[in-house]
Write a structure and sequence with these properties.
Blueprint (H helix, E strand, L loop, with lengths): L2 H10 L5 E4 L5 H10 L4 E4 L3 H8 L10 H9 L3 E4 L10 E4 L14 H13 L5 E4 L7 H11 L10 E4 L18 E5 L2 H12 L5 E4 L2 H32 L3 H8 L23 H11 L5 H11 L1 H15 L8 E5 L14 H11 L3 E5 L23 H5 L3 E4 L17 E4 L15 E4 L1
Helix pairs in contact: 1-7, 5-6, 8-10, 8-11, 12-13
Length: 442
């Protein structure tokens, strides 16, 4: 029996040991999914605190409950470790590490490259390696295959390589790792076959494509689609504000059309690990081929300008109340990048807080999901969340709604508030009664 058939047999029998490198928002749910499907799993991370927490039955990601973690680890099929020597025990290894941008919006593949170097040292015949980290077309073929083949093994015969983009949406009650279709592109037919079999054993639907480049580009296209349309919504907001037209009402009217329109909503800027970063992976690669992705770059410029727009609107709103931004107390509602989760990666709230400080304001934040701010890729505001209470809210000159947490949808919180700058249209449905705060859309 050759290496491919042997691996396929172990996948079919659920005896193939699956390794997942990177136990964050993508890797942890994937590791738990493979365990739930009956596979023995080893989760790898450089942070020993994560491995220790998981073995205690604790979850460090809020929307992945501790009960799910504790039940999985109690069954004994899954372990978490920082010992990368155990990669050799795995029949399939899935790489889920970050792919950030550098200072000049260039792709930073350092996490992929360091992980590939660890894997290459321990690669053995019969292993499948799948990259899930979002990146530009060609990365899987260029960055994984040569270091592996330098070991004297042949891709498609001795080992197998594929790309399958992550499609996590933290906090989404309808879609999760198991029921989101999984795009898979193998380097060669044998790699495609084993990678498709692996994911097919754990997820509801596998979408096979002709190459890893197609899979890599599909992931970028998904996120660029959102980024461009959000930029359009943001630009419409700024234009319509000058005209005195409510963009939220416009969107609700437009979405009644049963064809040819899909609603996207404005906000204070883009957040999360994907949409603010991924489009620039394609623009960078496009330049290598002598072309300029102008539409994508323009959308990026609009979206990255939104925190400054929010601060400007806040300053003007304060002026109408006889106050300047300098010396004012500003409370930003929400540090996470989307509602009802504890994920603050690339959140525009960080830049809003920094720009408020630059303008001389005393800035604080309230977020029940993030009690203490964490240092990010570019920002470290060094704050702890204030209490989510009407008394605390009333102590500030203006509130800036940056995240539409359900916790903020309580009318009594705003009883003694004077001014709210709302970037999410959170305030509109609330019945605040007479004498409520001035609401400024931003």
């Amino acid at each position: 029996m050759d290496q491919k058939d042997s691996l396929l047999d172990r996948i079919t029998n659920r005896t193939a040991r699956v390794g997942v490198i990177g136990l964050g928002y993508v890797g942890l749910p994937l590791a738990l999914l493979f365990e739930e499907a009956g596979f023995p799993v080893i989760g790898f991370d450089v942070d020993p605190a994560k491995a220790e927490a998981l073995h205690r039955g604790e979850s460090y990601i809020r929307h992945i409950g501790a009960e799910k973690v504790s039940q999985a680890f109690a069954r004994g099929r899954i372990v978490a470790t920082t010992d990368f020597d155990r990669l050799g025990e795995c029949d399939a290894v899935v790489i889920c590490v970050p792919t950030p941008l550098g200072r000049h919006r260039e792709p930073d593949l350092s996490f992929i490259r360091s992980t590939v170097a660890e894997m290459a040292q321990r690669l053995r015949a019969g292993q499948l390696v799948v990259l899930e980290s979002t990146t530009y077309p060609g990365t899987t073929r260029e960055e994984l295959v040569p270091p592996f083949e330098a070991r004297g093994l042949e891709c498609g015969t001795d080992f197998f390589v594929a790309f399958s983009p992550e499609r996590e949406d933290p906090g989404n009650p309808r879609f999760h790792t198991q029921n989101i279709p999984k795009v898979v592109g193998g380097i060669d037919p044998a790699s495609q076959e084993v990678a498709t079999a692996l994911y097919g054993a754990a997820v509801a639907e596998v979408v096979a494509v002709s190459s890893p480049e197609v899979a890599e580009a599909a992931k970028l296209f998904e996120n660029i689609f959102r980024a461009v349309n959000i930029a359009l919504a943001n630009e419409m907001k700024m234009v319509l504000d000058r005209m005195g037209v409510n963009v939220w009402e416009v969107i609700e009217a437009a979405r009644t059309k049963p064809f040819g329109f899909m609603p996207f909503y404005p906000g204070p800027g883009l957040g999360g690990h994907c949409i603010p970063l991924d489009p620039f992976y394609l623009t960078w690669k496009a330049a290598e081929y002598g072309t300029w992705a102008r539409f994508i770059e323009l959308a990026g410029d609009i979206n990255t300008s939104m925190p400054a727009y929010v601060v400007d609107r806040t300053a003007k709103a304060l002026n109408r109340h006889g106050k300047s931004l300098k010396g004012s107390r500003v409370l930003v509602l929400g540090l996470s990048y989307k509602a009802n989760i504890d994920d603050d990666r690339e959140s525009p709230s960080f830049e809003i807080i920094e720009k408020l400080r630059e303008g001389g304001a005393t800035a604080a934040y309230c977020d029940p999901y993030i009690p203490v701010s964490r240092p990010g890729r570019e920002h470290d505001i060094g704050l702890a969340s204030v209490a989510c209470s009407g008394e605390e809210f009333a102590r500030h000159d203006v509130l800036v709604v940056a995240t539409a947490h359900d916790d903020f949808r309580v009318p009594s919180l705003y009883r003694d508030v004077r001014l709210v700058v709302d970037t999410r249209n959170l305030m509109a449905p609330l019945d605040l009664g007479p004498g409520g705060p001035e609401i400024v859309q931003a």
